[in-house]
Write a structure and sequence with these properties.
The structure holds two protein chains of two kinds. Chain A has one domain: Methanol Dehydrogenase, Chain A (8 Propeller), CATH 2.140.10.10. By secondary structure, chain A is mostly beta strands. The two termini of chain A are 28 Å apart. In chain A, 4% of the residues lie in helices and 36% in strands. Chain A has four helices and 40 strands. In chain B, strands 1, 3, 5, 6, 8, 9, 12, 13, 15 and 16 form a ten-stranded mixed sheet that branches. The longest helix of chain B is centred in the first third of the chain and has 20 residues. Classes of the chains: A mainly beta, B mainly beta. The interface between A and B is medium-sized, with 17 and 16 residues.
Chain lengths: 593, 271
């Protein structure tokens, strides 16, 4: 069971252009072909997700279960200043240089051998930025001679890889309306594609594509039914169809106009179907009684044509979402064999507690199952993957109650999700997904609300509580064919960092307690740990240089949990902030053990 | 310094240049550097850094550098370089503040216009000598110097912008106009102020954020007339004044600016 290589897709004319560029340009230029091969290459990490499909699986076996105990730090790099907030970035590595982003919209280029800084870029942010969930950034994109990332004031910046000098900067959306960019943008065929955050402020979630070289806008695709998408021809916006066909099909009245659905986590690329696979956020406001209907395409997964932004298919995990289950979680392409035939699937683990396996050619539901221990808002999924709602699990309508507040319910999981932004990994060797998840619940109730630009548009109150006394975080190994939980590792604090798997039968993830840990991918046995001095809520990478295997991860406690975690504060209140990039390697003398 | 001493220095410089041309490799440029009448410890170092090791340098009263004796506000010190009697086309004008952490203020290079004066406010970190070096057609540098007394701190004090939560709303706002000075119909004075914090990066937790590149263009065909590069010594909300020998009033002028954050600001003045 292996992922088919995307090389078959190189017959596409645009991909051929990328090859021609790579030949003619200087050797260091990163081509689209480099990205298509990133999951196979061992000497680079040039995509968020360690491969455009986001599997986060390295074919390297130098570091493995037998020698991981010899993994040791070789350098650490400080992000500096007093801006030590959550660090959720995944680094990129190319030609011995590491590119990493940090809190407050900063980026550094660092010598990957020594940790010595080559340049740094600090965005001058306006005071009025409105990130809902800490001033974090999740990483960069690299293409040609530039590196790219999104800022908290909703702009995209293109920097020269060698000097850090700004090549262009583009305002994507209005930060004063609540927009921000925290996800890593993705490059597809020379197009730089990003979503925006802002679902808590009633913005309309939109996906944007720009020419990576010039910064010229190429297309926009709102993800809420009723809004017009555009392609740009010679600077002119040309209508390219209303999302969902027309307004008002799954929304009452004019509620679609501030519908939310922010695709704040960005997407991954499936070369087989030439699709951007991207999740969309929660509908606005949170009070679902104000918007009866499915509220398409919020809390959904979309396949978008990266050439013009057309939506190819959608799968909605939580129709009429009333719990902020959002729906942005990563959609990871993977192939598996069943009854002798190859299934081109995509998997996603939702904040709502269910794991979904979809046909990535048409979005059809193959199977789904709970991965969280307890789910109260739905009794299960029907044959199309639609939740079988539990009416008692939905917070009450304020109109049915005395006073302003609707009836409160205790809902499992909490709105921070059975799994949040932090990406899972898929091992092509074990065939398992490794899901960083949390066991917590919330009390949630609805309140009246009306839209005002730039103000929180929630219409709900809530507080989060841990489900168990001794743990919240659960790293799970799950079989996507059966739903079986093969192993689990429990952690006292909630898991908020991404996961990486390797062909060395290893799984890595970080903990808010400060550890980067390695586990046996087959058994879940904890094999190695190193305390980085602050919580690890970022995603590790691995690569090799000069025959030695390296592992890097950013360290720095923060993110949404300290801001929104309610009763979880008891567990996390004494965690200290940070801002360091740690790099480890297995010295060559231990590689043969 | 007396007028005669200046003249002597000028002749000395010219002689050095001649000798330098005749026996190029045997005469070191250092020999042609005159003493600094202000005895600044940074005199030779900054000449080397900004004009190069081979520069031919002379003091000149044709470069009239006007600064106040004392800077009441160390973040906004007015500076004017007047070149009304400069006897040669100007190749470039470089100014610096000897004892600032980043001494360089600006480098101005005319391409298709003649410059007769430049004014720009600067920051001062401590009492310092200020220099304006003007290169003539032969490549000789003519230096005007002045001393500013100051309480200091102008480079490391937070900008007024930094304490204004609405600063992003006014970023890049410009006001300016073209004027016809009394010196004649062939001359144009451009005066333009742009709202920009011009943060030096030397204040804690405020990254460097300043306009680096400026271009003067003919508004009609966007042909470049002059370029200017700015450094951290430039003041917040810079007010640019250029006296040009150019029929700018007729065609109109464009002032184009780009900061290190990649923001571009542009203003069209005149017709």
């Amino acid at each position: 069971m292996t992922q088919s290589t995307p090389l078959g897709n190189l017959a596409r004319p645009l991909a051929l252009t990328a090859i021609a560029l790579a030949v003619s340009a200087q050797a260091q230029a990163v081509s689209f072909e480099d990205m298509l091969n990133d999951h196979l290459a061992t000497d680079q990490v040039v995509t968020n997700g360690m491969g455009l499909h986001g599997q986060r699986f390295s074919p390297l076996t130098t570091l493995n279960t037998d020698n991981v105990h010899q993994l040791r730090p070789v350098w650490a790099f400080s992000f500096g200043g007093e801006k030590q907030r959550g660090q959720e970035s995944q680094p990129l590595v190319k030609d011995g240089v590491m590119y990493v982003t940090g809190s407050y919209s900063r980026m550094w280029a660092v010598d990957a051998y020594t940790g010595e800084q080559i340049w740094q870029y600090e965005a001058r942010l306006p005071d009025g930025i409105m990130p809902c969930c800490d001033v974090i950034n999740r990483g960069a994109a690299i293409y040609g001679d530039k590196v790219y990332f999104g800022t908290l004031d909703a702009r995209l910046v293109a920097l020269d890889r060698e000097t850090g000098r700004v090549q262009w900067i583009k305002r994507v959306a209005d930060y004063e309306a609540g927009h921000a960019i925290t996800a890593a943008p993705i490059i597809i065929d020379g197009k730089l594609i990003t979503g925006v955050a802002g679902g808590e402020f009633g913005v309309v979630g939109t996906v944007f594509a720009f020419d990576a070289e010039t910064g010229d806008e190429l297309w926009t695709r709102p993800v809420v039914e009723g809004h017009m998408g555009y392609v740009f021809e010679n600077g002119e916006a040309v209508e390219n169809g209303i999302t969902g066909g027309e307004a008002g099909l799954s929304w009452p009245g004019d509620m679609w106009q501030q519908g939310g659905g922010a695709p704040w986590l960005g997407g991954f690329y499936d070369a087989d179907t030439h699709s951007l696979l991207i999740g969309t956020g929660n509908p606005a406001p949170w009070n679902s009684h104000l918007r009866p209907g499915d509220n398409l395409y919020t809390s959904s997964r979309l396949a978008i044509d990266p050439d013009d932004g057309t939506i190819k298919w959608h799968f909605q995990a939580t129709p009429n979402d009333g719990w902020d289950y959002d729906g942005v979680n990563e959609v990871i392409s993977f192939d598996y064999e069943e009854n002798g035939s190859l299934v081109k699937a995509a998997a996603t683990a939702d904040r709502n507690g269910f794991f979904y396996v979809l046909d990535r050619e048409n979005g059809e539901f193959i199977r789904g199952f709970p991965f969280a221990d307890k789910i109260t808002w739905a009794d299960g999924l029907d044959e199309n993957g639609r939740p079988i709602f539990n009416p008692a699990g939905r917070p009450g309508n304020p109109a049915d109650s005395e006073g302003e507040r609707g009836e409160s319910v205790g809902a499992y999981p909490a709105f921070l999700g059975a799994k949040n932004w932090n990406p899972m990994a898929y091992s092509q060797d074990t065939g398992l997904f490794y899901i960083p998840s949390n066991e917590w619940m919330m009390d949630i109730w609805n309140e009246p609300v009306s839209y005002r630009k730039g103000a929180a548009f929630l219409g709900a109150g809530f507080t989060i509580r841990p489900t168990n006394d001794d743990y919240i975080g659960v790293l799970r190994a799950v079989d996507p064919r059966t739903g079986e939980e093969v192993w689990r590792h429990e952690n006292r604090a909630p898991l908020w960092g991404g996961v990486m798997a390797t062909a060395g039968n290893l799984v890595f993830t970080g903990t808010p307690e400060g550890y980067l840990k390695a586990f046996d991918a087959t058994t879940g046995e904890e094999l190695w740990g190193f305390n980085t001095g602050s919580g690890v809520v970022a995603t590790p990478i691995t690569w090799e240089m000069d025959g030695e295997q390296y592992v890097s991860v950013a360290s720095g406690w923060g993110g949404a949990v300290p801001l929104w975690g309610g009763e979880v504060a008891e567990v996390i209140k004494d965690f200290n902030q940070g801002g360091m990039l740690w790099t480890f390697k297995l010295p060559s003398e231990y590689a043969q053990q | 310094m007396s007028q005669q001493a200046m003249l002597w220095l000028a002749r000395c410089g010219w002689l050095a240049l001649t000798v330098g041309c005749l026996v190029a490799s045997t005469v070191t440029a250092a020999a042609s550097i005159p003493d600094d009448p202000f005895r600044s410890p940074m005199w030779h170092y900054n000449l080397n850094r900004y004009l190069g090791e081979e520069a031919v340098v002379q003091h000149s009263d044709q470069v009239v550098l006007k600064v106040p004796h004392f800077a009441e506000d160390a973040t906004q010190v007015p500076l004017t370089v007047d070149l009304p009697g400069f006897g040669s086309p100007v190749k470039q004008v470089i100014t610096w503040v000897d004892l600032n952490p980043v001494p360089h203020l600006f480098t101005f290079r005319p391409e298709a216009t003649e410059v007769r004066g430049i004014a720009l406010n600067f920051r001062i970190q401590q009492a310092s000598t200020v220099r304006a070096a003007v290169q003539d057609e032969q490549g000789v540098w003519h230096i005007g110097s002045a001393h500013v007394d100051a309480a200091g701190g102008g480079c490391t004090a937070p900008s007024a912008t930094a304490s204004n939560p609405d600063w992003a709303a006014s970023l890049g706002q410009m006001r300016g106009a073209l004027f016809s000075p009394v010196s004649g119909p062939a001359s144009t004075r451009l005066k333009l102020q742009v709202m920009h914090p011009m943060d030096t990066g030397m204040v804690g937790n405020i990254p460097r954020f300043n306009i680096e590149d400026v271009e003067l263009r003919d508004a009609a065909n966007q042909a470049r007339l002059a370029t200017m590069s700015l450094s951290e010594s430039a003041s917040e909300n810079p007010l640019f004044v250029f006296d040009l020998e150019h029929e700018g009033k007729e065609a109109g002028l464009t002032l184009w600016m780009r900061d290190n954050g990649g923001n571009v600001f542009e203003s069209h003045l005149g017709s």
